[in-house]
Every structure is written in structure tokens, then in C-alpha cells.
């Protein structure tokens, strides 16, 4: 089987990639990136990802960056896990829609909200505004247990992980429908297993306590 390496920090966006890898049940190794030591800015890492960002996945000679690209790539590359609708399935389009919505609308809108930026003119903004993005998400989550209804997909593992930390930081409102969704996704064995692995990794990375 081709070799998978995840460049990872447990307190970064790469947490969602680790969750997905655990859900797929494929062997992979973790290349830990310590931000405190500037490992994301070394020439070696910048040669792999010039932005110095996580997650970064290396699959043999292929380098895949960006959360959504990694999600699409892995779920399609290992289809036996059943985490992505087939290309010719009716739900393939909605599945891609919500993955694209995460990167193209949700995250930019969060940054606007977090830094208290004034909304752009709706005629020029590719995601309209923060309130509309949240309303659109809430409307979709109100239609079923998961983004595509009753079946959890790789898109839910991405969204569930992202919503968990954004609600914890108060960037996304702690609405009942959002919290219930987070709880459902967080109950997945892969989410629990990845959380345990990352807790142990975070502890190992922590600087020693001062005497």
C-alpha cells in the first residue's frame, strides 16, 4: 500500500485529517510539527508546503494540502470505508457542495466575524456575510442527523471537528442544532480514537514543567 504521512499538530486544523485517517482505517504515520519551535517555517517543511500550514499530507510522491482537498482525496482514494458518495451517486453533488462551502464560505466568514470586519457588499462577496453563512448551515443541519441526511460522510468528520473548536472559542453560536450535530459526530469511534491519540501527542509535546 502507498505510504501516507500526515504533517500534524494536535492543536491545528490537521486534527480533522487525523480523524478521517482513523475512520478510513488505513496505516499512516505522523510527522509532528511543533509551532513553538518554528518547525512549520523550516526550509525542509516549506519545500513541501510553501505556506507553512497544516494539514499537509504526503502520499508517496504526491503532496496534498488544504483541509477540503485532503478530505476529498482520502475519502475517494479509500472508497471501501464508504465515507464519500460515488462520483455517479445522486448525493455526490451535495457532498461536494458542503465541502466547498466549508472552505469558500464558512472559514472566510469566521475570520470576518472573529476580527470584527464589516461585511462586504453582497454583490461582491463570494460568501455574502457571516450571518447568512451560519443561517444556511443551521438550515441544512435541521434537515437530518448529518449534512446529507441519515448517513455520516467524510464531510461530517470535517464539519464536526471544525464546529467543535469554533463553538468552544465562541466564533460560532452554541445553538442547539449545532451542538447536537457536534455530539453525534463526536460519538464516532474514529473521532474518539483520534482525540485520545492527539491528547497523548499534545502531552508529549508540552514543555517540561519548571522546577
Offer a few descriptive terms.
8 helices, GST_C, Glutathione_S-Trfase, Glutathione S-transferase Yfyf (Class Pi), Chain A, domain 2, Glutathione S-transferase family protein, 211 residues, single chain, Glutathione_S-Trfase_N, transferase activity, 2 domains
Number of domains: 2
CATH class of the largest domain: Mainly Alpha
CATH architecture of the largest domain: Up-down Bundle
Taking the sheet with the most strands, its summary is: 4 strands, mixed
> What structural class is derived from the secondary structure elements?
alpha+beta
User: Could you please say which CATH topology of the largest domain applies here?
Assistant: Glutathione S-transferase Yfyf (Class Pi), Chain A, domain 2
- Count of individual beta strands: 4
Average pLDDT rating = 95
The helix-strand sequence is EHEHEEHHHHHH
**Strand line-up in the sheet with most strands:** 2-1-3-4
Report the principal-axis shape. Answer: globular
Output the radius of gyration: 18 Å
N-to-C CA distance: 47 Å
What is the oligomeric state here?
A: single chain
Strand content: 5-15%
Q: How many separate helices?
A: 8
Keywords: Transferase
InterPro entries: Glutathione-S-Trfase_C_sf, Glutathione_S-Trfase, Glutathione_S-Trfase_N, GST_C, Thioredoxin-like_sf
Protein name: Glutathione S-transferase family protein
Domain GST N-terminal: 1-82
